[in-house]
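Database export, one record per block. Field names are fixed; values are copied verbatim from the stored entry.
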Amino acid sequence: MLTLSASATDTAKLHMPSVAGSSQPRWGHCREDAPEVGATPSTSAGSSSCVSGWSKASSRSIADSCSDTDSSRPGSIVGDNQHAARLQDASLLACFLELSGSVCLGRRGADLVLRGIRMLRLCGYPRQDICCVLAHASAYFSAVFESVGVDMDNEEAGNVLVLLMYIAHSYVNDETCPLKLWHKHLFRNYCTVKTLDLAITRLLELRGYMLRLSDRDLARRMDHLAGSLPAGVL
């Protein structure tokens, strides 16, 4: 079971050596002083329950609860286009979850994945690059789920999806946001960077360190993601 916990005991459960992450951000727009990428909505009584058949409407309700925090910085969408950008994020979320096997997420897990998508957008990555990241991450999730899915709760599934996004991002993008920034904006109040390091190593092991997709599989996933966006976006 992949447990992302701030405690030393839970960290030790992974029984994996730490992998040193990049110490300096190579992508100019991903700065340590960047604004927060939306806030996690308050947890309601049913926030941890399974969300099956995740729809675009469900995603949009979460998208509307978070707003871009700095419309003036490079890579963000400004003015009247902010709402359209959030809806595109929500559409990609719904499609990503479908490609991941209609993974069961609660509201908190879905919000975390949505914030991960938004972070990549605010860092200036074009939609095509983001779709490529999501295409790879959705394929990686199937291997992980086959191994530990029975022990994965709703919130943990969201954590795993975001970490697989990080792995895919590091694989497909030449210039990347280092792990410490993913931790700052998405996991700061949940666990340590070291814990994320250990979990990523474990996920790579479950994937057999195989990150490349076949051309056919990648094209199928990219087409599905592209189809969730308005014409002309990609």
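Remark 1: Residues 14 and 161 are 18 Å apart (CA to CA).
Remark 2: The radius of gyration is 16 Å.
End of record.
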